[in-house]
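During the second year of the project, the team shifted from modelling isolated chains to modelling whole assemblies. The rationale, set out in the original proposal, was that interfaces cannot be judged from single-chain predictions alone. As a representative example for this report, we include one of the complexes processed in the last quarter. Its constituent sequences, exactly as entered into the pipeline, are reproduced here:
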Amino acid sequence: MNKRVAIFISGKGSNMVSLVESMVGNHVARPCLVLSDNPCAEGLEKARKLRVPVAVVDHRAFSGDKRAFESAMIAELDKASPQIICLAGFMRILSREFLLKWHDRVLNIHPSLLPKYKGLDTHARAIEAGDRVAGCTVHKVMPQVDSGEIMGTAKVQIYKGDTPEALAKRVLEKEHMLYPKVLKRYSLADYRPVFMEFDRVCR
Ligand code: GRF
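Output from the structure prediction step:
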């Protein structure tokens, strides 16, 4: 029986595309829904082209009423019945109540090597700090932002004279490799983390 995966997006949806494209063949998971809080998210059109059902729950329509916003999202999820939720550039913080309902089944990708650089502007902060290594992390989602058990990391070198934009581009390429690898393991109930060292998978 396939595992059903819902993917939440707010923007471009490039990670969503890499996840959807990975769920083929003998992969035990299949995408059942792409849900966006932003009706203008570029990723929505990409999801439609990939023939994945889409839903929009526009956060602005709820004027800050998080409970009502999340109830509307839950109504969409109830229709799609996912077993796993992947946040992929989803820009809203989910409440403790929402996460309790989906306990341990919500993953996120973050563009830094957590626990370093939670929040925004991760690449600029890594360059500013003089770091030599950057990367991305897939983690389980907890009520505390960018916390939760680490399910995978991928590393990228920071070069002399790197800009946040150039680094973001290289990290994003790794995100597109790491997230599908983690999801594949996770959907097989194999909870060992995936560690990608620069250009190879270590274990
Ligand atoms: C990625 O860098 C991801 O790590 C962060 O938001 C960005 C989303 O990009 N959470 P995309 O929408 O998947 O292209």
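The mean pLDDT is 95. The first strand starts at residue 3 and ends at 9.
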